[in-house]
Specification:
Blueprint (H helix, E strand, L loop, with lengths): L1 H6 L9 E6 L10 H11 L9 H10 L4 H14 L6 H8 L3 H22 L2 E6 L6 H11 L1 H4 L2 E4 L1
Parallel strand pairs: 1-2, 2-3
Helix pairs in contact: 3-4, 4-6, 6-7
């Protein structure tokens, strides 16, 4: 324990921020399902929450990033979570072609989770990925890249 504390700069160890997601047996029909579950776990949302709760939970969470990062990531996370966008964000997404939107959806979750990983270790646990769709696997690959640059551990 002393060695781990020393490696951490002498600061007390913080428990990790634990996020879990699971692919479903019919998951091939649900793109990004596991990623959505990880984001909902991070935001404290459940599948049964009313849609109005999502934007309220997403707004303060995106403020963990700088204002510029939050503006860049927030609409794509909202889109991924199936939240209704309005105003400038809705116009921005409508103007994107499908490949650009896919790219933004892929890089949004890692950008969102990078900031909490600076504050405390983040553990991403994903189960039953043999059922995951290709878009989920692509997004998990992007999340895996977080392990190179932040205190993030991926278990799948």
């Amino acid at each position: 324990m002393a060695r781990v504390t020393r490696l951490g700069g002498g600061q007390p160890l913080q428990p990790p921020h634990w996020l879990e997601g699971r692919a479903l047996s019919y998951g091939a029909a649900l793109p990004y399902w596991t990623i959505i579950q990880l984001l909902k776990a991070d935001l404290g949302l459940s599948d049964g929450d009313p849609e109005v709760r999502g934007p309220r939970r997403l707004a303060p969470e995106t403020q963990r990033a700088t204002c510029e990062e939050a503006a860049d990531v927030s609409p794509y996370l909202a889109h991924l979570l199936g939240l209704k966008l309005e105003g400038e964000d809705a116009e921005r997404l409508a103007a994107l072609d499908s490949e650009t939107l896919k790219y933004q959806v892929l890089v949004g979750p890692p950008a969102h989770l990078r900031r909490p990983a600076e504050q405390q270790p983040v553990v991403l646990v994903c189960e039953d990925l043999h059922w995951a769709d290709p878009s989920t696997l692509d997004a998990l690959g992007e999340l895996l890249a977080l392990t190179d640059t932040s205190r993030c551990c991926c278990c799948w």
